[in-house]
Design a protein that fits this description.
The chain contains 4 helices and no strands. It is an all-alpha fold and 135 residues long.
């Protein structure tokens, strides 16, 4: 099964490479890949590392990391409509206030994370109280 999957993958890579070379988009793809490398190494990686260092001292860092992952995914999904180059020609194409909705979604993630942290703390205290010896 691995050989079949690997063969299919290699065949698809060959098709992609031939389309890239014969399609005349080699310069555009190379520029896009260079920009992606610069964006990752210059912006994304330092932000992730800095956030990780800041979260190292947080007691419930697993929950906070999970919230950060969700917030990052929401941001990546929202970026195309947040960074669109202007109003669409057809007003019905993007009719919503995407910036407001993105901020509401991030606020919901923050509120639910806070509620989860409080709930975990209450549960730990309640469990410790129930396990305490009675005298």
């Amino acid at each position: 099964m691995r050989l079949v999957t690997g063969g299919v993958g290699l065949a698809l890579m060959a098709v992609g490479a031939s389309l890239l070379v014969t399609g005349g988009q080699l310069k555009d793809v190379a520029l896009w890949l260079a920009g992606a490398i610069v964006l990752h190494d210059g912006v994304v990686a330092p932000l992730v590392l800095g956030t990780g260092l800041l979260l190292a001292a947080v007691p419930a860092r697993g929950t906070v990391r999970g919230a950060m992952v969700v917030a990052g995914c929401l941001t990546v999904i929202a970026l195309p409509v947040l960074l669109r180059p202007g109003a669409p020609k057809n007003a019905s194409v993007l009719p919503l206030d995407y910036l407001r909705n993105w901020l509401i979604a991030l606020a919901a993630v923050a509120v639910l994370t806070g509620a989860a942290l409080v709930g975990m703390r209450v549960l730990r205290r309640w469990t410790a109280y129930r396990r305490a010896p009675r005298g």
